[in-house]
Structure formats: structure tokens, C-alpha cells
Design the sequence.
């Protein structure tokens, strides 16, 4: 069996290792088998030649969490087992949120690379799909490079990773779309970084970014870069708030 390679950069590490173990065991994240995964997790840690000291505590904390859950789920009384099941469910949510973030970052990175190879670093303004465009290229005229850089920077500025303390939300993308529309109604133009806010969480960065991509795709907004390189959101040329009016 080949040794697993675990990145120890921002927000990778313990959760990336857990995802790898789930894929290798061909188990659904929702059905996370704690006892089996805990044993495999420890074995993989023992095989790793080095762990960045900055993140070693995160790997060990996750190991302790898994072993504690394994013990409680197997040996605990019914009341304690209920608490353990709640902790297991929390870990599953963390894994799903991490996978969502990782997959989105990978998608943006792929578009970044494809854009750079084809056009270098184009600029301009995007006002949504053109008749010839499709779901894979609707960002091309603006610059996937620029979008990826802004997303990566904002996401990286969030507090240092703590995989066992991930801030999760159940807010749908529609929530963030309505938030952006409300800000446009009040201000006319919105700086994306300010929209996310100084107390942002990783979930908020992801939610707002997904909302922005969807709104651009539906031609509900246009985006451009200011001199500082920030994304500025504004209504399209013929903007009409898509929400129903009170008198209708």
C-alpha cells in the first residue's frame, strides 16, 4: 500500500486525511465508520515521515477525537452514546463542508489554469452569459484568474484553521443572493470584500462567492475590478430587482 501524502497547508491536514480514508474504504461520508476510520487514521499517522510542527497539534487532536468517539460509541451507555452520535454527526458535517470548499477551490484553480494558458491575464467586465457562452465559460470575459485570486485571498485571510472547530452554517446560497441584492438596493455598488465583512467565516466566504457566481450567470449583476484589485458588484445596465414588488 502506498503512503498517503497529506498536505499541511492552510485548511488541509486532518480532514484531508479523513476524506482520503473514506475514499479508500469506499464508504459514504454520511455513514462514517468511526471505529474503522480511527484505526486507519492512527496507522497513517505512524507512516507519515514528517508533519509540519505548525499543524501537528491538529493531527493529534483529530486522532484523540476519533479514539474518544470510538470508545464512546462502542462502550458507552445509551445516554452517553447519544452524545457520541451527536459528536459523530458534527464531524460528518465538518467533512462535508471541507469537501465542498476543497472541490470549489479545485474548480476555480482548474479555470485559473485553463484561462492562463489560453489568454494570459485578460481583464474587463462581466455582465452574465452571452448567447454563445455555456456554464463552463461564463466567467471567461471577466477573468477567472482575478476571481480565483480574490477568492483565495479572502478565504486565506480567515482565522487559522482549526478542523475540530469549523464554523458551519446551514444558510443556503439563496440567503447570500438576497443579501447581495439588498446591499445593491441600498448602496448601488458593493465591494465584495466589504460585503463578506471583517467577522467572516470560511462558510460565509464560500456562500457569498457561490451566490456571486450564480447571480453573474443569471445576469442579475455585473462585476468589475477597481484599482485596488477588489471585486465590485453593481446592477447590470438594465437592472430590475427580480424580487416581487409589494404592490404586485
Sequence:
Amino acid at each position: 500500500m502506498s503512503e498517503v501524502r497529506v498536505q499541511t497547508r492552510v485548511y488541509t491536514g486532518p480532514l484531508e486525511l479523513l476524506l482520503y480514508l473514506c475514499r479508500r474504504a469506499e464508504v459514504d461520508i454520511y455513514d462514517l465508520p468511526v471505529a474503522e476510520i480511527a484505526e486507519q487514521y492512527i496507522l497513517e499517522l505512524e507512516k507519515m515521515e514528517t508533519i509540519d510542527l505548525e499543524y501537528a497539534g491538529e493531527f493529534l487532536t483529530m486522532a484523540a477525537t476519533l479514539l474518544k468517539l470510538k470508545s464512546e460509541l462502542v462502550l458507552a451507555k445509551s445516554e452517553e452514546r447519544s452524545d457520541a452520535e451527536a459528536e459523530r454527526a458534527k464531524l460528518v458535517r465538518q467533512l462535508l463542508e471541507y469537501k465542498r470548499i476543497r472541490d470549489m477551490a479545485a474548480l476555480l484553480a482548474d479555470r485559473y489554469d485553463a484561462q492562463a494558458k489560453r489568454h494570459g491575464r485578460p481583464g474587463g467586465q462581466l455582465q452574465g452569459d452571452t448567447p454563445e457562452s455555456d456554464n463552463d465559460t461564463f466567467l471567461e470575459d471577466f477573468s477567472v484568474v482575478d476571481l480565483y485570486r480574490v477568492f483565495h485571498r479572502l478565504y486565506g485571510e480567515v482565522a487559522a484553521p482549526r478542523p475540530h472547530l469549523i464554523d458551519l452554517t446551514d444558510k443556503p446560497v439563496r440567503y447570500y443572493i438576497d443579501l447581495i441584492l439588498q446591499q445593491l438596493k441600498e448602496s448601488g455598488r458593493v465591494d465584495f470584500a466589504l460585503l463578506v465583512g471583517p467577522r467572516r467565516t470560511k462558510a460565509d466566504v464560500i456562500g457569498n462567492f457561490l451566490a456571486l457566481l450564480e447571480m453573474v450567470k443569471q445576469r442579475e449583476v455585473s462585476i468589475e475590478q477597481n484599482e485596488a484589485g477588489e471585486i465590485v458588484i453593481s446592477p447590470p445596465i438594465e437592472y430590475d430587482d427580480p424580487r416581487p414588488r409589494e404592490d404586485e
Summary: Helices lie at 14-25, 34-47, 53-75, 78-119, 144-157, 173-187, 192-196, 202-217. The chain has two domains: 14-93, 121-234.
